[in-house]
Design goal:
This protein is an alpha/beta fold and about 170 residues long. It has one domain: P-loop containing nucleotide triphosphate hydrolases (Rossmann fold). The protein contains nine helices and five strands, in the order βαβαααβαβαααβα. The chain has a five-stranded parallel sheet with strand order 2-3-1-4-5. The termini are close together.
C-alpha cells in the first residue's frame, strides 16, 4: 500500500487515528492543515479572517498537489479538503482513501472547547454541524472505506483499518 489518506468531518479523529496508524505501519504522518499553516505562516483562523475561505481552499489544493509522488505516508486531511473534485482525484491517486465519520452529537462533544475551527467558531450547534455534514456527505462517500468512530477508542479504529488493508493486500487490491 503506497499511502493511507484519512478524510472526514472536523472532530472525526483523523489526526489521532492518523498518528497511531502511522506508528503502527512505520509510515510518516502528515497533517495537511499543518502544512498549510507552515506555508502561510499564520493560523488557519487567521487565514480565514484575513483572506477568506477561498484563499484557504486554494492553498489546500496547492499543497495537496505537491504531495504527489510521496510514498509511505499517512495523510490526514482537513474536513473540507474533499469538496473540490480535483482534490478528491489527487487523494485517490495518492493511496487508499479512508473516511472517518461520527455522529453530530459526538462531534459537538469532541469540539466543544475548541476555537480553531473557523467554520464552527460563530455557530457550533448541532444544526450547523448536521447541515455541513449533509452537504458534504457525497464527498465523504467518495472513499475506499468508511469507518464510524463514535464511541470507539483510537486503537480499535486503527485495528479495523489495519485489518481492512490486510484483506485488500491479500486480495491483491492494494
Ligand atoms: C475545515 C476543517 C479543518 C480545517 C479548516 C476547514 C473544514 O480541519 O481544514 O478549519 O472545512 O471542515 P479539521 O477537519 O482537521 O478540523
Amino acid at each position: 500500500m503506497k499511502n493511507i489518506i484519512l478524510t472526514g468531518f472536523m472532530g472525526t479523529g483523523k489526526s489521532s487515528v492518523g498518528k497511531e496508524l502511522a506508528l503502527r505501519l512505520n509510515y510518516r504522518y502528515i497533517d495537511l492543515d499543518a502544512l498549510i499553516v507552515a506555508e502561510a505562516g499564520i493560523s488557519i483562523n487567521e487565514i480565514f479572517v484575513r483572506s477568506g475561505e477561498a484563499v484557504f481552499r486554494s492553498l489546500e489544493s496547492k499543497i495537496l498537489v505537491s504531495l504527489k509522488g510521496e510514498e509511505g505516508i499517512v495523510l490526514s486531511t482537513g474536513g473540507g479538503a474533499v469538496i473540490a473534485d480535483e482534490n478528491r482525484h489527487v487523494l485517490h491517486t495518492l493511496g487508499a482513501v479512508i473516511n472517518l465519520s461520527a455522529s453530530a452529537e459526538e462531534i459537538l462533544h469532541r469540539l466543544q472547547h475548541e476555537h480553531d475551527r473557523p467554520l464552527l467558531n460563530d455557530d457550533k450547534s448541532l444544526d450547523r454541524i448536521r447541515e455541513l455534514i449533509s452537504r458534504r456527505e457525497p464527498f465523504y462517500a467518495d472513499a475506499d472505506f468508511r469507518i464510524e468512530t463514535s464511541g470507539r477508542f483510537i486503537a480499535q479504529i486503527v485495528d479495523e483499518i489495519l485489518l481492512l488493508l490486510k484483506r485488500c493486500e491479500t486480495r491483491g487490491e492494494a
